[in-house]
Design a protein that fits this description.
Oligomer: homodimer
Shape of chain A: globular
Number of strands of chain A: 10
Amino acid sequence: VSLIEEIREQPAAVLRLLDSQREHVGRIGAALAVRDPLLIVVAARGSSDHAAIYAQYVFGALHRLPVALATPALTSLYGVAPRMERAVVVGISQSGQSPDVVGVLEAARGQGAPTVAITNAPASELASAAEHVIDIGAGPERATAATKTYTSSLVAVAMLADALAVGRRDALGGDDAGRSAALDAVPTAMETALASEPSVESVARAWASQDNCIVLGRGFEYATAREWALKLKELAQVAADPYSAADFQHGPLALVEPGYPILAVAPSGVPNASMRVLLHRLRGDYHVDLVVISDDPGTRDLGTASLELPGGTAEWTQPVVSILPAQLFAYHVTAARGLDTESPRWISKVTLTR
Amino acid sequence: VSLIEEIREQPAAVLRLLDSQREHVGRIGAALAVRDPLLIVVAARGSSDHAAIYAQYVFGALHRLPVALATPALTSLYGVAPRMERAVVVGISQSGQSPDVVGVLEAARGQGAPTVAITNAPASELASAAEHVIDIGAGPERATAATKTYTSSLVAVAMLADALAVGRRDALGGDDAGRSAALDAVPTAMETALASEPSVESVARAWASQDNCIVLGRGFEYATAREWALKLKELAQVAADPYSAADFQHGPLALVEPGYPILAVAPSGVPNASMRVLLHRLRGDYHVDLVVISDDPGTRDLGTASLELPGGTAEWTQPVVSILPAQLFAYHVTAARGLDTESPRWISKVTLTR
C-alpha cells in the first residue's frame, strides 16, 4: 500500500466509519449532553492538531461552545493541568501514543471530566486513558504522511458534534435530519473530488518548481489551509506558510510580489465573498501566481490555475472533501520533484513529544 | 520617531505601565476573581494574537484556566457567538478598531460575561465595548510594525494574571511578593537586553541574505517564536515559519538540510533541557545554520551565532524580554537588505478584518 492508494481509500474509510460507528458515537453524544458542558478542550499534535482546529469551528458553530486547544507542554513540562470541570476533553492521535496528549486526558479523567479519544489505535495508551473511544478504523496507514487518518479524524469530530446536538436545532439552524444527510453525502463527494486527479496532476507538475508559498483559508477551511501546508512541507519540501485570510493581511502580505505562489481553499459558503475580494486583489493588484481550490466556477476563475471540488457539500463537513485535491496536489508535486512520497526524510510516523 | 526608537522606548513604556496601572488592574483582578471564571476567552489579530498565545500560557500556568482563542469569524461571518457564561473575555488590539475583536466583546457583554479590553486606544470602539479597560499607554506607535504595543500588551496580560491571583499561591507556587518582584524586574532586564544591540546588529548583517527560515520556541516562548517570525515577514520579507519545538518534529523537520537557517528562542527554564537536545541534534546531525536567543551560555554555544539575554528573569515574564533581541535582529536584517523599516510595502497599521 502506498501513499496514493491511501489517498484513494479515503471515501471507503469514511463510509465504513459512518456506517459502523454512528450508533456508538450517538451514545457518547447523549452521555456528554447530560453533562451540559461549557467548553471543549482538545489535545492534539501534527495533522491531528488540524483536526483540532476543525473541532474549534464545528463545536463553535453547531453548539456555541468555546474550544480551547490544550497546551500539552503546561501539563507535561510544568506539571500544571488546566481545571477541566464543565469541559468535555477530546484527545486526537492516530497512533494514540503521543505522551503529552495522553497526559492531558489522564489529568482530565482525574478531575472527573468526560473524555473522548479519537484514534486509529483502539488498544493504545490514549484509548485506555479515555472514558469514551471513537475508533476511526481507517486501517493501517503505512505512508508517513497522514491522509486517511486525517479525514477520518475530521469525520469523527463531525459525528461527535452531530451526536451532541441530537434532538434539537444546532446554532446554524440545522436539525437531525439535515445533519445526517450532510454526513451521509460526504463519501460520494469525496469520490467525485478524487476523480479530478488527472487535472490536479497536471496543475501540480506545472507548479512543482516552487520552493515556498503561502496557503490561505478562512472559517472552516482554515484547518484545510494548515493541513495542505503541512503536506507540502513534509512531502514536497516546499516551505508553505498557512494563514487565515484575515491574519494574512496583518503583516505577511508584505512578502507578496509578482509571481509569488499563493494557494487558496475557497469553496462556496459564508467566507467565500470576502475570500473572492482578497483573491481578486492578489491577482489584479499584486499579480501573484494563484492556485484555487473551489466548487464555485467564478472563484476558480480568479486563479492562475484551479482544482475542482464537487458542489452541494454542507459547509460544516466541507473540509473533509476540500483537503482531497490538496493531498493529491502535494503528492504529485512531490513525485514531480523526484522526492520520496512514502518516507519523507528525517521524520517518523510516530513522534513521542512530551 | 522611527521604529528603532520605538524599540528602544520599550523599557520606559513598560515601567510607566507598571507604575500607573498596577492599582487599577488590581481592582479589575479582584472584580474578576469574584466571578470564579472557568475559562478565559481571548480575541485578537496579528501581533496581538501572539499576546493571546502568551495569555494562554500565563493563565494556564498561574491559574490552571483553559484559554480559548476566539475564532472571530464565527461571530462576524456566521453570526454565532460562543456561550461565554463562566468565562472572562479579553480583547487585545492596539488600535482598538478591529471589528471582529470588538464583535466578540460585544457578544460577551450581551451575555453578561466580564470583559477586559487591552488597548493603546482608550477612546476606541473596543474600549467602549468592554466593561474593564487596561490602557497600555505606550504612546503613539508610528512605525507599521508593532513593537512597544506588543511588549506592553504582554505586560498588561501578565499584570492581569497576577491581579487575579492576589492573596493566594498561584499554580507555579508563587506568592504575591514573588510575582510583584518578577514584574518589577522586567524593565531593567529589558534595558540590559537592548544593550546588546551592537552584537545583534553584527549577527543580523551576517545573516541578512537569507530568504526563508524556521523559528522555534516552546512553552511561554512559543509566543516569541511567532512574533519573531511575523517581524521577519512584514519588515524583512523573509518567509519565516514559526513552530513550537514539539510540532516541528511532526513534519516540518523534513525541510531541513545542511545550512538551512533556523532561529530559536531558548532561555533558561523548564523547556530548556528538551530544546537543547533538539538544537544539539539540529547542529550535529543536520548541520543547520542556527541563531539562538538565550541567557544560558551553554545554550548559546549550540548556535552558529547567538543573541544574549540577561539572566534572572522569571519564566512567566520572560517573553517580554526575549522578544527584544528578536526585534533588533529583524530591524537590522531589514536595514541590511535595504528595505523600508517604517512602512513595509502593502500593509497598513490598522487592518479592519471582519
